Amino acid sequence: MKISGIIALLSLSAIPCWLLSRQYHEINDFPSAIVREWEVSATFDMSGLTKDIYPHFSTIFNTRWEHVIPDSAGWIDISRRRGINTSAYGAFGRTFFISGNDAQYKITVEYSEEIILFLNGKLIQQNRINKENTHELIETELSVKKGLNELFIFIISQSSNWGFRVSSFPMMRSLDVDHTLTYILDETESDFLTPGSVLYDPLKELFYVASYDYMYYTKGSPSGYISKMNSNAKILDHKWIGGLFAPTGMCLYKNKLYIIVRNGLIVFDTRKGHYITQYDIINTEFLNDIAVDSHGRIYISDASNDPSRPDIYILENDEVRPWYQSDQVSGINSIHVYKGKLLIGNNSEGLLQAIDLKDKHITTICSLGAGVIYGIKVDNNGNYLVSHWEGKIFRITPQGGITEIFDTRLEGYNAADFEFSKESNTLYIPTFLGDKVVALKLNY
Questions:
Q1: Are strands 362-368 and 147-157 parallel, antiparallel or unpaired?
Q2: Please, what's the b/e burial string for 247-284 (b: 16 or more CB within 10 A of its CB; e: otherwise)?
Q3: Which of the listed residues 174, 205, 227 is the one where a domain comes to its end?
Q4: What is the DSSP string of 314-327?
Q5: Which domain holds residue 137?
Q6: I need a surface site. Which of 240, 294, 309, 370 has the fewest CB within 10 A?
Q7: Structural domain count of the chain
Q8: Positive or negative, the Cα torsion across 52, 57, 59, 63?
Q9: DSSP string of 121-135, one letter each residue
Q10: What is the mean pLDDT of the chain?
Q11: Over the stretch 114-144, which tens digit does the pLDDT of each residue have?
């Protein structure tokens, strides 16, 4: 062998395997595309934390997310101060992408120590590298859904060598974001107790706001209440109805206000504010939202993830009974009646779906990835308006095209079960942990 060849080999052997691996996969990733849109959390000591369960939605909201762009080679390097040698430090990373239909994506994930992958809140793979290696990769397929999808990464390290890179085929297409389609018109003071829902009363031209009070379990008596508010976000009667056990969804029918509480359904006369009756609903996990059709039939969602429990109840002929149950649907929060169908947020699967009120046939409109679908309404153009509790507001076409039109996280609060005023083209958003209601005008 020539001297020059030997020198070249010796030089090559001196290159760290981490760098060699990076160069090698840049060649072999073709025609995959590097995923370049990421949100990454601050690092944290994850000793004792469960690694193979997608984080609770409150953890996701309270995480300090930062928009991060990979380096020129596509790597996300996570810097942190090392703890003691026995500590394991963690960080979250996530990327959102749109798919035009249900499809298979092939991804390559390269990482430095230990990594757990979730797609739309579901565990798909967990890997830890061999101690003799400094770098590893995963090649796997993702069964993505039509609409918005989330690839979530939980990366763990006990060393200073900490990073990851993801490539995908086909390329992950970013969500359309256009916040110019909305602007804040007005807002109340932060005088509510974790408001969870808003309802418009067209006869009285005012809004009802349900204060859930998420600390209700620490109180000696029911502390939730209903307020009255006008269209200018001025509170007219702070505790119009008090003493409610963590109220959530509300609906109106013939001057009767139906309010979901923890043990059932309470009915009030809106003309006098007087209590009328109560319907106890037993063996439920978490009653949440309520909707009424043109015939006065009232639908009630249970956010249970237990497949043996009914997902939706109905109040009809003065009797509450189970109406819909499926092992493909669970965790239903928001519901809304529209054109003979019950729109639902199937949170166990991250899907916006529609159930036919006659034959109960269910169809999927689109995926919204992981998270809690908290509010569903329809705008004046027939588009669906949907909120994620974490803070995003989406406009979704009947064909399933998604645009993010607002993000309450930028203001530091949530987006719960909002109301939409067709007359003023305005959303009234209860901000839950923000303790106020925000009037958001649609600019289209």
A1: parallel
A2: bbbbbbbeebbbbbbbebbbbbebeeeeeeeebebeeb
A3: 174
A4: EEETTEEEEEE--T
A5: 3-174
A6: 294
A7: 2
A8: positive
A9: TEEEEEEE--TT-S-
A10: 89
A11: 899 999 999 999 887 666 566 788 999 999 9
